[in-house]
């Protein structure tokens, strides 16, 4: 069978996901496991969304609406855009693949940060195109370096803002100094999966920028601030003509029935969204204060996770925390050995995490 596999598929590394909670329980024989590894929403989802999901219990045998009509209408209303500019898919993860399927040919170049969401690279490779990875600058995306790397082979440039895993942002002012140097023939993807958590008023207003630059598309998700990761709904907003082609590529039923209905309801519940954002902010500040007390350097995060420097072997820290039932993301898996990425959790879990981290560092230093 080996002969059947495309060389592009052979070039891919398997995705290493955060360990599932049940696996950690089994492996370490512990009852309570806290997952702070995948930037999920510790507050769950809104009560109104739960009611909608409950009401759908008898609809498992039905295909979802292939046009995602109601959801697209709600997104269009929320962001004040034309409904035909909106596209939906099975998480923004799958939309990244759909974008690559739509535009990339063998040999095309696709520009991204060196340390960023790994799906830009893997889907570029899958198409036989060439990832151009630009080194980070002070642990942030070097957006000037990314724009400098554009050639006549460049098809797409991926701006992850806030960037996963660093949590850092670039500002509108910084972006505006570069935008006119990006040719109209290059697609600009603004992946703003964590935008809801940003408090800075300097963050780019991508929808506004899109009015003058129709080669920008915005990618967003219901997996993070809305707490619907398991329902797999991502969405985007872009120029109508481009979106029409993209819709030919997106599988008709990728946006499942539960996800569509839940996401439509989630957008209406502004109170829950505010609750999530406010609490994330309080806990983000708490963690920063505690890291400071421990003398640990952390990156200036604007998201629901934080990257912290553990000054040495992050693998051992990861293993120690796992044995105590806390799952985090070790930096060696993210291209940042010596660091760990921790999702911002509930108040009590964060407090416990800090205590365990202190223990873990001591254990690591003595073993
Ligand atoms: C930057 C970024 N983009 C996209 C995604 C994909 O999210 P989803 O497929 O759940 O919508 C993630 C998930 O972690 C992410 O961090």
Automatic annotation (TrEMBL):
EC number(s) reported in the record: 2.6.1.9
| Reported cofactor(s) | pyridoxal 5'-phosphate
Entry-linked InterPro entries: Aminotrans_II_pyridoxalP_BS (IPR001917), Aminotransferase_I/II_large (IPR004839), HisP_aminotrans (IPR005861), HistidinolP_aminotransfase (IPR050106), PyrdxlP-dep_Trfase (IPR015424), PyrdxlP-dep_Trfase_major (IPR015421), PyrdxlP-dep_Trfase_small (IPR015422)
Q: Does the keyword Transferase apply?
A: yes
Its keywords, alphabetically, are: Amino-acid biosynthesis, Aminotransferase, Histidine biosynthesis, Pyridoxal phosphate, Transferase
Q: N6-(pyridoxal phosphate)lysine occurs at which residues?
A: 224
Sequence ranges assigned to domain Aminotransferase class I/classII large in this UniProt record: 32-355
**Catalysed conversion reaction:** L-histidinol phosphate + 2-oxoglutarate = 3-(imidazol-4-yl)-2-oxopropyl phosphate + L-glutamate
The keyword Transit peptide belongs to this UniProt entry's keyword annotation: no
EC supergroup of this enzyme: transferase
In terms of CDD domains, this protein maps to: AAT_like (cd00609)
Q: Which SUPFAM superfamilies match?
A: PLP-dependent transferases (SSF53383)
A GO molecular-function descriptor: histidinol-phosphate transaminase activity
Q: In which pathway does it act?
A: Amino-acid biosynthesis; L-histidine biosynthesis; L-histidine from 5-phospho-alpha-D-ribose 1-diphosphate: step 7/9
Q: Which Pfam families match?
A: Aminotran_1_2
Please give the PROSITE patterns that the UniProt record associates with this protein. Answer: AA_TRANSFER_CLASS_2
Family, per entry: Belongs to the class-II pyridoxal-phosphate-dependent aminotransferase family. Histidinol-phosphate aminotransferase subfamily.
Q: How does it assemble?
A: Homodimer.
This one is known as Histidinol-phosphate aminotransferase
List the top taxonomic levels of the source.
Bacteria, Bacillati, Bacillota, Clostridia, Eubacteriales
Q: Its gene?
A: hisC
């Amino acid at each position: 069978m080996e002969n059947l596999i495309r060389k592009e598929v052979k070039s891919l590394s398997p995705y290493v996901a955060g360990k599932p909670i049940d696996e950690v329980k089994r492996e370490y024989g512990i009852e309570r496991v806290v997952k702070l590894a995948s930037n999920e929403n510790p507050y769950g989802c809104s009560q109104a969304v739960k009611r909608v999901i409950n009401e759908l219990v008898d609809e498992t045998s039905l295909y979802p609406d292939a046009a995602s009509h109601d959801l697209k209408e709600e997104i269009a209303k929320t962001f004040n855009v034309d409904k035909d500019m909106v596209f939906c898919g099975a998480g923004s993860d799958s939309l990244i693949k759909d974008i690559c399927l739509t535009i990339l040919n063998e040999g095309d170049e696709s520009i991204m940060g060196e340390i960023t969401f790994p799906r830009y690279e893997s889907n570029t490779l899958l198409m036989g195109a060439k990832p151009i990875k630009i080194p980070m600058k002070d642990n942030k995306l070097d957006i000037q370096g990314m724009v400098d790397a554009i050639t006549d082979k460049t098809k797409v440039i991926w701006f992850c803002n806030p960037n996963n895993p660093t949590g850092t942002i670039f500002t509108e002012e910084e972006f505006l100094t570069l935008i006119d140097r990006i040719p109209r023939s290059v697609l600009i993807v603004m992946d703003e999966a964590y935008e809801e958590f940003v408090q800075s008023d300097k963050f780019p207003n991508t929808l506004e920028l899109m009015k003058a630059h129709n080669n920008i598309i915005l990618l967003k998700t219901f997996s993070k601030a809305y707490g619907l990761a398991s329902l797999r709904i991502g969405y985007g907003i872009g120029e109508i003509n481009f979106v029409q082609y993209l819709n030919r590529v997106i599988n008709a039923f990728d946006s499942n029935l539960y996800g569509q209905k839940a996401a439509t309801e989630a957008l209406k519940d502004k109170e829950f969204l505010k609750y999530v954002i406010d609490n994330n902010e309080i806990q983000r500040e708490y963690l920063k204060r505690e890291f400071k007390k421990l003398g640990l350097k952390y990156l200036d995060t604007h998201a629901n996770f934080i990257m912290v420097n553990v000054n040495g072997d992050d693998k051992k820290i990861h293993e120690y925390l796992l044995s105590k039932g806390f799952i985090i993301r070790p930096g060696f898996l993210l291209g940042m050995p010596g660091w760990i990425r921790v999702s911002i959790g509930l108040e009590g879990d964060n407090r416990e995490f800090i205590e365990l981290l202190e223990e873990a560092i001591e254990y690591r230093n003595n073993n």
